[in-house]
């Protein structure tokens, strides 16, 4: 009778590395018996784990495993979301919430972005329309940017801040959050 080898003994440990735009840090490890089986898997990490900034723990990044070399796996940014609990804590009674979703053609890929605008009081339909048309025009200016640069600007608040400063002339704004971005 032949001796069988446990499936666990055939597996290797692979180190998962973040993209260069996130400092090529190690995100974690994974097991696989064949390197080809790793390609296409995803890993979710909070921005707090990458930057060490505890105030960014509600931002969840998803990376797709791409290239396997030796015992390391390189990743590519796939999407980012805000945690549901964080979003629920921002919406209160008496606040208007305006959701805006748009597909943007960037220099090297296409992205879908969802932005939430919160106002401290009720907003008229005319003001909502002005806000959405402004955001559409504003996001069209980013079509010449690379996806890595665009994601960095969103994650660290530059786009949200720019939108806020321009929208406050239309109506009072409490908060602007980019809820998610997905690279297609």
What does this structure look like?
With 184 residues, the protein is an alpha+beta fold. Strands 1, 2, 3, 4, 5, 6, 7 and 8 form an eight-stranded mixed sheet that branches. The longest helix is centred in the last third of the chain and has 16 residues, at 125-140. The mean pLDDT is 85. It starts with 6 loop residues before the first helix and ends with a strand. The protein is 28% helix and 38% strand. The protein has two domains: 8-82, no CATH class; 84-183, Tetrahydropterin Synthase, Chain A. The chain is built from six helices and eight strands.
Q: Main traits of this protein?
A:
184 residues, alpha+beta, Tetrahydropterin Synthase, Chain A, 2 domains, 38% strand
Topology:
Layout: H1 7-10, E1 12-17, E2 26-32, E3 42-46, H2 47-51, E4 59-69, E5 72-82, H3 84-90, E6 96-105, E7 110-119, H4 125-140, H5 147-155, H6 158-167, E8 175-183
Parallel strand pairs: 1-5
Antiparallel strand pairs: 1-2, 3-4, 4-5, 5-8, 6-7, 7-8
Number of domains: 2
| End-to-end C-alpha gap | 52 Å
**Level-2 CATH architecture of the largest domain:** 2-Layer Sandwich
- CATH class group of the largest domain: Alpha Beta
* Total strand segments: 8
Which consecutive residue ranges, at least 5 long each, have pLDDT under 50?
Answer: none
Tally of helical runs: 6
Report the major sheet.
Answer: 8 strands, mixed
| Assembly form of the protein | single chain
- In terms of DSSP E residues, the strand content is 35-45%
- Secondary-structure element series: HEEEHEEHEEHHHE
Mean pLDDT comes to 85
Q: What share of the residues lie within helices? A: 25-40%
Q: What is the fold-level CATH name, i.e. the topology of the largest domain?
A: Tetrahydropterin Synthase, Chain A
